[in-house]
Specification:
This protein is an alpha+beta fold. The protein is built from five helices and twelve strands. β6 and β7 form a beta hairpin. It binds N-((E,2S,3R)-1,3-dihydroxyoctadec-4-EN-2-yl)hexanamide.
């Protein structure tokens, strides 16, 4: 409760998002905080297996099954220079730009705008042979991380996406199988020594540390080998493409903290 109060005060005093309440407020607060702690915990415990590496990017997974379906948790870390945590997270959250970087999508509908930093989205993903096509219905929330939870970073932001239900769009209605998901993108901005010199930071002085966590339940039959092959190909492709997209989009714009 204390923590939730701190978050509300933080978002109001920062002047970014109004502390509006709506039917999903408490669920969103709880799961976003859980995801923040999960994202901040390390991958050095011997439980995670490195499966992809490219430059600064590292992707880890844990192989897990529920009722014979692979639900492998994924955790990825990456470092990108020249962008802030806020810029990264805003582009991940904003449904209006999703088709500019998300390559697995066929259709996306914003079902509800709960506040200026929370919405409910229905997505239809491209079909992967030989499995039934999937859809996903989830709330999405963008949030600045309270200063005392940023550790050594200048600032930190998080986006959390989590499955939900909507009476007008029931799951598994014939055409698609609904996936279940809990996904977060947590980004931290680091400044180099320019701050100490007293000059305002430029893009050359910024580094963004990115942590992406995903647990996706395929929701119904999908061959495990195909699923793992799809994830092995798609997650690195997504993170590289998305971070490059944000870098390009922001490079000629004023820095946004
Ligand atoms: O996080 C990512 N994208 C966000 C915005 O779209 C959002 C995405 C959620 C959907 C993730 C589920 C994708 C399922 C794709 C179909 C699976 C096929 C199963 C059949 C295989 C035999 O959080 C980036 C998501 C990158 C996904 C690889």
């Amino acid at each position: 409760q204390l923590y939730l109060e701190k978050l509300r005060q933080n978002s109001v005093s920062e002047g970014q998002t109004k502390a509006e309440t709506h039917r999903l407020t408490s669920e969103i607060e709880r799961i976003t905080m859980e995801q923040l702690q999960y994202a901040q915990s390390g991958v050095e415990d011997g439980v995670w297996t490195l499966f992809a590496e490219d430059g600064e990017m590292r992707m880890y997974k844990r192989e897990e099954e529920i009722d014979g379906l692979a639900v492998d948790p994924l955790k990825a870390v990456h470092t990108v220079k020249g962008v802030t945590a806020r810029e990264m997270c805003q582009h991940f959250y904003n449904p209006d730009v999703r088709f500019e970087w998300e390559t697995t999508l066929e259709k996306m509908t914003v079902l509800e705008r709960l506040s200026d930093a929370a919405c409910v989205v229905l997505q239809v993903h491209k079909k992967v042979w030989p499995a039934t096509q999937r859809d996903a219905l989830f709330w999405s929330h963008l949030r600045k991380v309270p200063k005392d939870m940023c550790r050594d970073a200048h600032d930190a932001w998080i986006v959390c996406n989590n499955s939900t239900e909507h009476p007008n769009f029931p799951s598994n209605n014939g055409k698609f199988i609904r996936v279940g998901l809990t996904i977060c993108l947590m980004c931290q901005t680091y400044l180099d020594s320019s701050e100490e010199n007293g000059s305002p930071p430029t893009r050359d002085n910024l580094t963004c540390k990115i942590t992406y966590c995903a647990v996706v339940n395929p929701g119904g039959w999908a061959p495990t080998s195909v699923l793992r092959a799809v994830y092995k190909r798609e997650y690195p492709k997504f993170l590289k493409k998305f971070t490059q997209y944000v870098f390009e989009k922001c490079r000629d714009k004023p820095v946004c903290f």
